């Protein structure tokens, strides 16, 4: 299985009014966040309406979610940055380690994620499993003819 990175269209832009509606904050509040450097609009022509990238939309939605949990704006922004860093680590790990995904039950959303061989154990593979028993990691012996 060949893995590839999916990239969102770089031209994807959302206007300030649409972003406001999407995440449930006022345009005034978004402008304030922008003035503080918490979010950034895309460079545009002088006098044009603000446009935001998909990344900024996610960032603003995450800030809003932390505000809803009771955090102050400054703490919500700090927590958002922490989440961004954590997601980057998970993405990097998945890009490096993920070997294959096998769907075992489409209707129930069950499957197995193949993370490859266990370090220093050429006959054991690591799998992430989702099934009727929940979520778990497990190792499995692999037949000698399956190795490599």
Automatic annotation (TrEMBL):
Show the InterPro entries listed in the entry: DNA-bd_dom_put_sf, MerR-type_HTH_dom
User: The HTH merR-type domain covers which part of the protein?
Assistant: 16-80
Pfam families from the UniProt entry: MerR_1 (PF13411)
Q: Which Gene3D superfamilies match?
A: 1.10.1660.10
SUPFAM superfamilies membership:
Putative DNA-binding domain
State the Gene Ontology BP annotations.
regulation of DNA-templated transcription
Q: Name one GO molecular function term.
A: DNA binding
Recorded protein name is HTH merR-type domain-containing protein
Organism classification: Bacteria, Bacillati, Bacillota, Bacilli, Lactobacillales
């Amino acid at each position: 299985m060949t893995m590839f990175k999916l990239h969102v269209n770089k031209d994807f832009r959302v206007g300030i009014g649409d972003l406001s509606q999407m995440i449930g904050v006022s345009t005034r509040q978004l402008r304030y966040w922008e003035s503080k450097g918490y979010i950034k609009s895309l460079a545009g022509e002088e006098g044009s309406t603000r446009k935001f990238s998909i990344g900024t939309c996610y960032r603003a939605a995450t800030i809003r979610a932390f505000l809803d949990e009771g955090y102050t704006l400054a703490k919500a922004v700090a927590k958002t940055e922490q989440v961004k860093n954590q997601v980057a680590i998970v993405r990097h790990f998945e890009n490096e380690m993920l070997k294959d995904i096998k769907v075992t039950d489409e209707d129930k959303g069950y499957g197995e994620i193949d993370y490859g061989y266990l370090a220093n154990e050429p006959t054991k593979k690591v799998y992430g499993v989702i099934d009727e028993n929940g979520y778990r990691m497990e190792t499995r012996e692999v037949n000698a003819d399956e190795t490599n």
